[in-house]
Specification:
The structure is a single chain. By secondary structure, the chain is an alpha+beta fold. The protein has one domain: CheA-289, Domain 4 (OB fold (Dihydrolipoamide Acetyltransferase, E2P), Beta Barrel), CATH 2.40.50.180. It contains five helices and nine strands. The strands form two sheets. It has a five-stranded mixed β-sheet. A four-stranded antiparallel β-sheet has the order 8-1-2-9. The longest helix is centred in the C-terminal third of the chain and has 10 residues. The radius of gyration is 15 Å and the shape is globular. 31% of the residues are buried.
Length: 154
């Protein structure tokens, strides 16, 4: 099996933000599935969805970023150790190769998000925090460049 380039990322829109998910952590992208709410779950947990016959926690990326809950038009199933979680995003733009040097100084998904949610998530699941913080929030000017030049590598 060919190895995945460490610079490949799945670009997703979460509200007005562009996020780059490391492709190595992504298992699949799908349309939103029915989600069953979980009583007393933190607000960033939309609930549980049955994905590939496995109950899977669905997290709201918009809520984690500090905004209102997103539309969750797409689910991105990701590896977290030996298990999976689904991240609800508004849309998926595709896979791009991004410059690792340009990505490294950019904030992770959890930086600048809701402090209370991030603190709660850290207590509940440190391994998940590591995976979510590998997601980079890209600046608006990069989004504009990507939309203007669909084939360009930023």
């Amino acid at each position: 099996m060919a190895s995945t380039s460490p610079n490949l990322a799945l670009l997703c829109r979460v509200q007005t933000r562009l996020c780059a998910l490391p492709l190595g952590a992504v298992l699949e992208v799908m349309r939103a599935l029915p989600i069953k709410p979980v009583a007393d779950a933190p607000s960033f947990v939309k609930g549980v969805s049955l994905i590939r016959a496995t109950p899977t926690a669905v997290l709201d990326a918009g809520d984690l970023l500090g905004g209102a809950a997103g539309s969750g038009g797409r689910l991105v199933r990701m590896k977290v150790g030996e298990r999976t979680v689904a991240l609800a995003v508004d849309s998926v733009l595709g896979v791009r190769e991004l410059d690792a040097n340009a990505l490294s100084p950019l904030p992770g998904l959890l930086r600048g998000g809701r402090a209370d949610a991030i603190s709660e998530l850290g207590v509940l699941d440190a391994e998940l925090c590591v995976v979510l913080d590998s997601i980079r929030v890209l600046p608006d000017e990069l989004l504009a460049r990507l939309e203007a030049e669909p084939g360009a590598t930023p």
